[in-house]
């Protein structure tokens, strides 16, 4: 077995020590620090990004809360204003309705008064005419000249009754 | 065995002088041999892999960089599991041992190459270095208290004369078991591959059977190549842990 031949041991030991030492130095001084550096930088970047993301999230949440508050305030004030305007309009409309109703009432009363006056004057003038017609008619029909006062009284009574009947 | 025979399965372990090209038996200490060549190739490959792979140092790693980072994190994890945070100091030497043995084993899987980890002198040199270093570390850290390591805790004093020699022998056999494990695995695996491969030509058409077996065994050998490097590294970690904490 070639492994048990001591004559080839020194060269193997020599090259083993040489190559292994060089490899150790390269790994110790160059390769591992570089890998460690890269891994650390990556970890740092990850941590930084996470921290930044957390900060941004908090900021966004604060802004959202502020916005919500402002929105709620604006809504409340708008609601208030709307209610005030509504109340004012309602009050004014009521006032105007009342004024109109009052005006209409007074006009109605006035008109009724005018109608009543016109009716009574018409009735009065009608009574005189009717009395004269009745006197003339009775004289022609029965040749009796009725007492003017008597006729006027009767006609007034009859018309008063008729006016009462047909009043409505 | 048929040492020196043209198709001996052990021929692959022959040390051959490359510069100067001398016959075995006349090779000098400084001669550059096939073993030296593979060691140099291993060093160049590992250095190139680690340095060129990390050249860009990208935040999002590419394939080579991922592999380099993976090897770094693999060994870092191994150390933190077995030794803990104190083990950080020994990271470079364990990483070097792991990569050197791993690449040495893997290079041996290339046909017509040479496996320098299949030589007991190489694995023993590595193991005795680990053993010496760990023992010096333990004595430097604990002084004479180190020798309490050979007394199993809780053992009755009457048993000491029996237990202490056992502990001492088991401690002293560490470099032997460490080196023989790696050497024997490489030797046996490569010899077996060669023996079975030798049947392929002889069996004619039925050579397909040993050929399939060689393919399967090559896969197994690649696993063993990795596993033995891992075992060497983890045992080194455990020895360092023993040195730091004794029991």
Q: Any chance you could write out the topology, listing elements then pairs?
A:
The complex is a heterodimer of chains A (168) and B (247).
Chain A: H1 9-142, H2 148-165
Helix pairs in contact in A: 1-2
Chain B: E1 17-19, E2 32-33, H1 34-53, H2 63-82, H3 91-107, H4 120-142, H5 160-172, H6 174-202, H7 208-245
Antiparallel strand pairs in B: 1-2
Main attributes?
heterodimer; A: 168 residues; mainly alpha; 2 helices; B: 247 residues; two-stranded antiparallel ribbon; 7 helices; 2 strands
CA distance, first residue to last residue of chain B: 45 Å
Oligomer designation: heterodimer
Number of helices of chain A: 2
Strand content of chain A: under 5%
How many strands, which pairing sense, and closed or not: the largest β-sheet of chain B? Answer: 2 strands, antiparallel
Structural class of chain B: mainly alpha
Mean pLDDT of chain A: 90
Q: What does the overall shape of chain B look like?
A: globular
Per DSSP, what share of the residues of chain B sits in E-state strands of 2 or more residues?
under 5%
| Unreliable parts of chain A | none
**Broad shape of chain A:** rod-shaped
Largest interface: A-B, 36 and 53 residues
SSE order of chain A, as H and E?
HH
Number of domains of chain B: 1
**Secondary-structure element sequence of chain B?**
EEHHHHHHH
Q: How many strands appear in the DSSP assignment of chain A?
A: 0
The mean pLDDT of chain B is: 92
Question: What low-confidence regions of chain B span 5 or more consecutive residues with pLDDT below 50?
Answer: 1-6
Total number of beta strands of chain B: 2
Query: Structural class, judged by helices and strands of chain A?
Result: mainly alpha
* Range of helix content of chain A: over 70%
């Amino acid at each position: 077995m070639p492994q048990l031949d001591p004559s080839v041991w020194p060269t193997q030991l020599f090259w083993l020590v040489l190559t292994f030492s060089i490899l150790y130095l390269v790994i110790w001084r160059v390769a591992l620090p570089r890998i460690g550096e890269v891994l650390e930088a990556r970890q740092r970047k990850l941590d930084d990004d996470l921290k930044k993301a957390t900060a941004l999230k908090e900021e966004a949440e604060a802004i959202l809360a502020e916005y919500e508050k402002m929105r709620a305030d604006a809504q409340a004030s708008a609601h208030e204003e709307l209610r005030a305007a509504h109340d004012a309009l309602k009050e004014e409309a009521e006032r105007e309705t009342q004024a109109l109703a009052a005006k209409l009432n007074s006009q109605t009363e006035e008109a009724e008064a005018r109608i009543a006056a016109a009716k009574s004057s018409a009735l009065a003038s009608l009574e005189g005419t009717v009395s004269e017609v009745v006197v003339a008619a009775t004289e022609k029909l029965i040749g009796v000249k009725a007492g003017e006062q008597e006729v006027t009284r009767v006609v007034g009574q009859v018309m008063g009754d008729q006016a009462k009947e047909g009043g409505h | 065995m048929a040492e020196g025979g043209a198709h001996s399965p052990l021929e692959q372990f022959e040390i051959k002088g490359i510069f100067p090209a001398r016959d075995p038996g006349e090779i000098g200490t400084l001669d550059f041999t096939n073993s030296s060549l593979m060691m140099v190739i291993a060093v160049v490959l590992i250095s190139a892999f680690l340095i060129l792979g990390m050249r860009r140092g990208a935040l999002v790693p590419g394939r080579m960089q991922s592999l380099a980072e993976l090897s770094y994190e693999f060994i870092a994890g191994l150390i933190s599991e077995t030794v803990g945070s104190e083990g950080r100091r020994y990271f470079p030497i364990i990483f070097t041992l792991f990569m050197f043995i791993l690449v040495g084993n893997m290079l041996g899987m290339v046909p017509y190459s040479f496996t320098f980890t299949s030589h007991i002198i190489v694995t023993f040199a590595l193991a005795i270095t680990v053993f010496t270093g760990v023992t010096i570390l333990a004595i430097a850290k604990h002084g004479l208290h180190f020798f309490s390591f050979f007394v199993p805790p809780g053992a009755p004093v009457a048993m000491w004369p029996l237990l202490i020699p056992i502990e001492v022998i088991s401690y002293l056999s560490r470099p032997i078991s460490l080196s023989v494990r790696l050497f024997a695995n490489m030797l046996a695996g490569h010899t077996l591959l060669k023996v079975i491969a030798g049947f392929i030509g002889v069996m004619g058409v039925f050579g397909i059977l040993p050929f399939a077996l060689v393919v399967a065994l090559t896969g197994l050998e690649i696993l063993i190549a990795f596993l033995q490097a891992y075992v060497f590294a983890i045992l080194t970690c455990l020895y360092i842990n023993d040195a730091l904490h004794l029991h």
